[in-house]
Specification:
16 helices; binds zinc ion; about 400 residues
Length: about 400
């Protein structure tokens, strides 16, 4: 029949596979295509390739295929089995799907493209006309494929970052390849054991080649990295330090503002954003206001100046002058009588040998932060991650730069 040939071509069936029957279900808006292997042809054992005659047929299975003319299209087949002297009775491989899959490779490839393009699992689910679980399965298989195909190419610079997940204070840890801008893997907590498992899942040759690791000052990150990649320098992330200093400035402002208010002094009212904004990003008006404000001897002004002064640290090229600069800054900060600033200064001092490594490697978690916003986007759009496993899969699917396609 005409439509059988047509469907053979549409499906890209390789000979001697052929279309046996096509049935159109107008009610279900569905096309079912039966495929068969000629009875008189030999088949190959999938394990060793040895040819023999058909032993029998497996039960009928179906595969969801790409829609044809907007009709949901299902392939069905009773796949021949061989009796191999070595491997027993086994079902032959089919060219249109990976073993055990309920979808054809073309469909899975299309689903991957679709999900990558719309970054929205709910929308993807509607367009693909599949269930949430089927969609999860496709993503999981795609990520598994991609992870298997990854090569152990050298990674010089690694970033470790925590990411809030679920309700309350639950954190997952995201390990990233800073050279290639991709997520290496995600661990379920931010505890030492979890970080250890991330390091240990990395091939040894790759782990031994890591030169430096960017991270905040979280003890578990530090300890695990020291234990697992002994040769690597730790570089405490510049942006975390800047943000700690900004928080300290804000704390000083809050306290001072509360004290001033007790004396009915509203000088600092509505100034929060001014103290947090980068001067170069202020409008002319804001600059004027800020200048006037900063002339008065507010404690928050002194805190702000110390924070801004610290920015110079990152511009140093040589270690000696950078150390001298830090000594002077540290002296000023710790003699400022500003408790929040003193606290941050002491933290930096305690970790200083792993802060000054920045001059050598110039790495930050800025990339990882970019990934974080992408992860946030994935999380917001795809509400209802049922547990960590699916969350990890989604992160790797979108941020792992993996080869996701079936073949
Ligand atoms: Zn065999």
């Amino acid at each position: 029949m005409h439509d059988r040939d047509l469907y053979s071509q549409v499906l890209g069936l390789t000979k001697p596979w052929k279309v046996k029957d096509v049935r159109l279900g107008m009610e279900e808006q569905q096309v079912v295509v039966w495929i068969e292997w000629p009875e008189d042809l030999k088949v190959k054992c999938p394990d060793c390739g040895k040819e023999s005659i058909i032993y029998d047929h497996a039960e009928e299975r179906s595969w969801r295929h790409l829609d044809t003319c907007q009709f949901k299209t299902i392939l069905r087949c009773r796949v021949p089995r061989v009796k191999c002297p070595e491997h027993g009775v086994v079902t032959m491989n089919v060219p249109w799907a990976e073993p055990h899959s309920r979808f054809t490779m073309l469909f899975e490839g299309f689903a991957v493209d679709m999900l990558q393009a719309c970054q929205n699992r709910t929308k993807g689910q509607v367009i693909l006309k599949i269930s949430w679980d089927e969609l999860n399965l496709i993503m999981r298989k795609a990520v598994e494929r991609g992870m298997c195909r990854r090569k152990a190419e050298p990674i010089q610079f690694v970033g470790i970052d925590e990411k809030n997940f679920g309700r309350g204070h639950n954190y997952v840890t995201v390990m990233s390849d800073l050279d290639r801008g991709r997520v290496i893997d995600v661990a379920e907590t931010n505890e030492t054991k979890a970080i250890d498992s991330l390091w240990q899942s990395m091939p040894k040759t790759q782990r031994d080649g890591v030169v430096a690791v960017s991270m905040d000052m979280w003890e578990a990150f530090i300890n695990s990295t020291r234990n697992n990649v002994k040769q690597a320098d730790i570089v405490h992330d510049k942006f975390h330090i800047v943000s700690d200093l900004s928080d300290a400035v804000n704390d000083v402002r809050k306290k001072e503002h509360a004290m001033l208010l007790e004396n009915k002094n509203e000088s600092l009212k509505g100034t929060k954003f001014l103290w947090l904004k980068r001067p170069e990003r202020m409008t002319a008006d804001q600059k004027e206001r800020f200048k006037a404000l900063n002339k008065d001897q507010f404690a928050v002004g002194r805190a702000w100046n110390l924070k801004e002064l610290f920015r110079h640290f990152w511009d140093y090229v040589y270690v000696k002058p950078a150390r001298d600069f830090f000594k002077r800054w540290y002296f000023a900060a710790t003699h400022s009588r500003l408790a929040p600033i003193i606290k941050v200064a002491k933290t930096i001092q305690n970790h200083f040998e792993d802060v000054i490594t920045y001059l050598k490697h110039r790495i930050t978690n800025a990339f990882a932060e970019g990934i974080n916003s992408k992860i946030q986007q994935v999380k917001t759009i795809a509400r209802g991650f049922r547990g960590f496993a699916n969350y990890r899969i989604a992160i790797l699917f979108y941020c792992g730069k993996l080869d996701l396609y079936p073949r």
